[in-house]
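S.,

Sequence below, as promised.
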Amino acid sequence: MALTGRAGGPPLAAPGSPALVVERALERVAAAATGRAPDLPGVSLLGERAAFTGFTRNAPWSCGGRFRAVPARDGSVGLSLARPDDIALIPALVERDDCADPWAALAAWARELPARVADERIALLGLPGGALDSPATRPPVLRSPGGLRTRRTERPRVIDFSALWAGPLCTHLLTRTGAEVIKIESRTRPDGARTGPTGFYDLLHHGQHSVAVDFDDPADRDRLARLVAGADLVVEASRPRALRRLGLDAEALVAAGVSWLSITARGRGSDRVGFGDDIAACAGLHATAGDTPVPCGDAIADPLTGAVAAAEAAEVLLDERARLIDISMHDLAAESASGPVPAHTVSLRAGQWWVECEAGAFPVARPAPRPAPGSAPPSGAHPLESLL
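The prediction came back faster than expected:
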């Protein structure tokens, strides 16, 4: 709530129960951990990035200022413009050359169209966004059984191809349970989160190995394939064809006994892309300030997915068979958003916002950072050959 609403205005509650989904996912991670009880965070992880960045309520924009929703003829559409390439596509989206203010151009374009038509064009151009309140189209998690696992040790080995937040949160939680995590980055395009708050990156990646690979080098690709073939689990957050180009076939690896966890915007069968704010809002996980839909929290689909992915990963690492786990962030957010906002009131008392509901009265807590126990390794700190 501290991150939802207008700057200076009252904090707003989210629909459904995203915090409960995270709480139950963390309970599953703890239950699947072997040995001593792991040191896991609580549901406050939903706001951890904002604690490091200083983000706060910023409606109608997202906390980070890169996403907002605009009215369509019969609903709303939302878009994230976080990358220069996305901004460059706005003239093609709205079919106008004069787009000095991309948001003004987007708003003028959207209000003339049904939300469904705008959504289809956003998808066609591969932009992160779409129509708000788009329904779920499949279960949030699909699981396909594979072959018998060939590597079962007390300390499982996890290969992490993901970046930014959802996937790294998953592998961070696995690191806390004792897994050996090897983060794979391109030598020319490292994880974009490295340019963000250092404390947040350190928190998610401390205690892991870091390998930098030249994906155009056949020798590096061969070594990478051998590393993956000897792993317990692969975590990735790209469209399937991206890793197939490197000679990594998820289905074949799962059949051979390596589990594979895929995090995508709308599932492995979809080419839709997205970030945490637009995915959540398009799935219905948004609040309303006046007549304006506003994002819930800070990119909430990312930590929501990361926690659920960690639960799925921790459980598959106990199984004797490998599994292909296909997580759709959109459908998970849609399931988490189902249900009304519980009856409550919000009031300001001596500079502190309070929320009162059936369970009692509670202060609206500001995001608080967990201190990282140490620094994350630099990109490429661990030679690939040393881990084979």
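The first strand starts at residue 67 and ends at 72.

Coffee later?
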